[in-house]
Design brief:
There is one protein chain. This protein is α/β, with parallel strands linked by helices. It has 2 domains: 3-283, Response regulator (Rossmann fold, 3-Layer(aba) Sandwich), CATH 3.40.50; 293-479, no CATH class. Helices cover 29% and strands 21% of the residues. The protein has 14 helices and 19 strands. The strands form 4 sheets. Strands 12-13-16-17-11-18-10-19 form an 8-stranded mixed β-sheet. The protein has a 6-stranded mixed β-sheet with strand order 2-3-1-4-5-6, sandwiched between helices. The radius of gyration is 23 Å and the shape is globular. The relative contact order is 0.12.
């Protein structure tokens, strides 16, 4: 069949599931991202869209490298939350599969997923989706998936795909390159390459704070894998090292190495074993200390009182909406208020009721602001403080830096509340749950990051890319706050995580597959 007839299906169900967070319902997907048919391609070819950048990059790279026919199916996703509601997920899989069958014959399928999804009735929905797609198109049709490097990789996922391509950066700023890579690999498969893929998963479940890639053990491991991939370029087409997402609490948790060879499965297995062994030998490095809340408040006050000192940024690490956090814990905020902190930008607190009240009162109004009014939870306690409405916005914005760059975001009615009088604490309140990983969360109100002495963000790692112009690594501090995304994994009641795993179980042992037994 000539190249111009190559028909490539496009689909994906994108969710990073925190098993301890509320269920991700159909409405969460419909409100965030739910596209069917031609609109997927239209959005992918637009210079600014709401699509994940890897999907847009895949489409644009296929456009640039030769004739093809996109066959868009369903692409949906929502910000990290709890398990996906089972009926909605099953219906979505059925809709995707029906679309693939109706569009037959197909020459390939591209899947843009996250990779760390669990469902209310399925511990491996990513694997379920990929297996259903494989069954629908048959064994000879190329199926390629791109995943977040926080993916939890199952044997079913690896068996159902010809290649799984993971991000290489955290914060995630390489989605475009990964989408391009998937398209180029697909072109090679059209030319006759038949890749072989090998998965090795370790009993290593690192806390999220150790999975940055600019430095540290995870970055070193990814760099090693990419160097070895380049050295073996005649044999290896992709090396992906997945740090896992612990909070999914699933049987497929664990740092995973996926290596794809051009044709020789033994070559892929050998390199995967080499990289996995290196990870295990360095497992002790996957630990990291955080700053106690009281020390963070002290530092904020020191910085505010000494204008010659560099400003600082704090991660409210236990409440990261980018990892399934509610975005509304008050531990750090209430401590800053009690400590009389000054010159603080705090963002972004997810509270629809409070944002609506601020809009109803208008700019200049002073009132008793009640955070988490009527819907307090174990972590998101009610907090009341005198505040003034100083800024209002409709919440429609386009990201400027990092993971949200050129992405359309709809935060809903948003407000800035001033606590402690002029020069005190400015709190951004939003109506749609998102992690504050981009300066536009403040800049859309006309706030200048450079004017703050301390910035506090509800984001665990991705804020680093968005705020790097102001805060190099030595000015970044992760605060040990309680919440659904606390990196202190011993605080959680694990139910499905395979045990033992390191570092929660320090005496865990592991032997790489294929290692000869001791004589």
């Amino acid at each position: 069949m000539p190249d111009q007839a190559k028909r490539v299906a496009l689909c994906g169900v994108i969710l990073e599931s925190n098993a301890f967070s509320p269920v991700a319902e159909e409405v969460d997907f419909r409100e965030a991202l739910y596209l069917e048919g031609a609109e997927i391609v239209t959005q992918a070819r637009s210079p600014v869209s709401s699509l994940p950048r890897e999907m847009a990059a895949f489409v644009q790279t296929m456009d640039a490298t030769g004739p093809w026919t996109p066959v868009p199916s369903v692409l949906t996703g929502c910000p990290p939350w709890g398990p996906v509601e089972g009926n909605f997920f099953t219906a979505t899989v059925e809709r995707i599969v029906a679309g693939l069958k109706d569009a037959a014959p197909l020459d390939a399928v591209y899947i843009a997923n996250h990779g760390a999804m669990v469902a209310t009735d399925d511990g491996d929905p990513d694997g379920t989706l990929m297996t259903a797609i494989r069954d629908a198109v048959g064994p000879d049709v190329p199926v390629i998936a791109t995943l977040d490097l926080h993916g939890n990789i199952s044997e079913a996922m690896a068996a159902a795909t010809d290649a799984i391509i993971g991000y290489q950066t955290n914060p995630h700023v390489d989605q475009v390159q990964r989408g391009e890579e998937a398209a180029l690999l697909m072109r090679q498969m059209f030319a006759g390459m038949a890749p072989r893929q090998v998965l090795i998963r370790l009993p290593l479940v690192p806390p999220s704070t150790t999975l940055l890639t600019a430095a540290g053990p995870y970055g070193d491991l990814i760099d090693y894998g990419q160097r070895r991939s380049r050295e073996l370029a005649s044999e290896i087409v992709n090396v992906s090292v997945f740090g896992n997402f612990a909070f999914s609490d699933s049987a497929k948790n664990g740092l995973a190495v996926v290596v794809t060879a051009r044709s020789d499965e033994d070559k892929a297995a050998g390199l995967a074993r080499e990289i996995a062994s290196r990870a295990w030998d360095n497992r002790a490095a996957f630990t990291r200390e955080m700053m106690p809340i009281e020390d963070g408040v002290t530092l904020a006050n020191v910085v505010a009182q000494n204008p010659d000192r560099a400003s600082v940024i704090f991660s409210d690490a236990g409440d990261n909406p980018g990892g399934g956090g509610e975005g509304r814990t008050t531990w750090l905020l209430s401590a800053l208020v009690a400590g009389g902190a000054r010159g603080v930008y705090y963002g972004s607190f997810f509270d629809k009721d409070l944002a609506a009240e601020a809009h109803g009162l208008g700019i200049g109004a002073e009132f008793d602001a009640v955070f988490n009014r009527g819907n307090a939870t174990e972590f998101s306690k009610r907090f009341e403080v005198r505040a003034k409405v100083v800024k209002l916005h409709d919440g429609n914005m386009v990201g400027r830096l990092g993971i949200y760059r050129n992405r359309q975001l709809k935060l809903g009615p948003s407000a800035v509340l001033e606590i402690g009088g002029e020069g005190g604490i400015l709190v951004v309140v939003i109506s749609s749950r998102h992690q504050t990983a981009d300066p536009m969360f403040f800049e859309m109100f006309g706030l200048d990051i450079a004017d703050a002495r301390s910035v506090c963000v509800k984001s665990r790692g991705h804020f680093r890319a968005g705020f790097i112009p102001w805060f190099p690594s030595e000015q970044v501090f992760e605060i040990d706050t309680a919440g659904l995304t606390s990196p202190v994994l011993s605080r959680f009641n694990w139910r499905n995580l395979p045990r033992p795993v390191y570092p929660m179980d320090p005496d865990t042992t592991w032997t790489p597959p294929g290692t000869p037994p001791n004589n």
